[in-house]
Amino acid sequence: MEAFAILLAAGKGTRMKSELPKVLHPVGGIPMVGRLVDKLESMPISRIMVVIGHRGELVQAYLGTRVTFVEQTKQLGTAHAVLQTEHLLRNRCGSTLVLTGDTPLIRQSTIERLLAAQRANSCSGVVLTAVIHDPTGYGRIIRDPLNGEVIDIIEEKDATPEQKRINEINTGIFCFDNESLFRALPAISNNNAQHEFYLTDIVKVMSQTGISGGLRFEAIVLEDPTEVMGINTPEQLEEANRAFYARMGIFA
């Protein structure tokens, strides 16, 4: 069975205070998106697609022919970004990884574990989650109180006070059954605080529309949240570099 990967790299990254696309800022001396592509190239992935937007020509110049580029001309949300690959992937049988281009610390073994879980359970999708002390700013994982199944992901701006107390968060990294993914994407709406098409809404859409065919939406809880630490500011970039060198045993 084939596997595909979509890297989301279209964001402006305005809080980085740089003209350089966020995903080209280096962690451990290598641009973030380059570290992710390195890991994916070491896996049996049939096609790696990178969704570009703001100053995408710089990302293209850096990655060259290693990947297939798809442009998101308008920043309408993560579901809209993934939908830009439809002409390449629709009706293809297999598993599709979706990763954010600013998570260079994720281990290849974690990506492999995510892919293996989707295949082994033949589920409609698997989301990578983490349990953290301060979940402020992250989407919250909503589980069925009876069986623990993931039934929704709520972005913080749309969460109730009770939901904001949940400490299990969405990392933005998924693995889907490819055909289920592209059947569900058009049903996602932008009826939310940001007026964006959230990929996180796909959990609810798959369940409510029957697209999942009764299959569960699974979750893998990450043991080391530093693998997916957010990199949105120069300070967080410094923190990610410290974490990278600490992992390498180099305490710079």
UniProtKB/TrEMBL annotation:
One of its GO terms (molecular function) is UDP-N-acetylglucosamine diphosphorylase activity. The keyword DNA-binding does not apply. Catalyzes the last two sequential reactions in the de novo biosynthetic pathway for UDP-N-acetylglucosamine (UDP-GlcNAc). The C-terminal domain catalyzes the transfer of acetyl group from acetyl coenzyme A to glucosamine-1-phosphate (GlcN-1-P) to produce N-acetylglucosamine-1-phosphate (GlcNAc-1-P), which is converted into UDP-GlcNAc by the transfer of uridine 5-monophosphate (from uridine 5-triphosphate), a reaction catalyzed by the N-terminal domain. InterPro entries: GlmU-like, MobA-like_NTP_Trfase, Nucleotide-diphossugar_trans. It comes from Paenibacillus foliorum. It catalyses: N-acetyl-alpha-D-glucosamine 1-phosphate + UTP + H(+) = UDP-N-acetyl-alpha-D-glucosamine + diphosphate; alpha-D-glucosamine 1-phosphate + acetyl-CoA = N-acetyl-alpha-D-glucosamine 1-phosphate + CoA + H(+). Keywords: Acyltransferase, Nucleotidyltransferase, Transferase. Pfam families: NTP_transf_3. SUPFAM superfamilies: Nucleotide-diphospho-sugar transferases. Residues 5-130 form the MobA-like NTP transferase domain. This is NTP transferase domain-containing protein. The keyword RNA-binding does not apply. In the N-terminal section; belongs to the N-acetylglucosamine-1-phosphate uridyltransferase family.
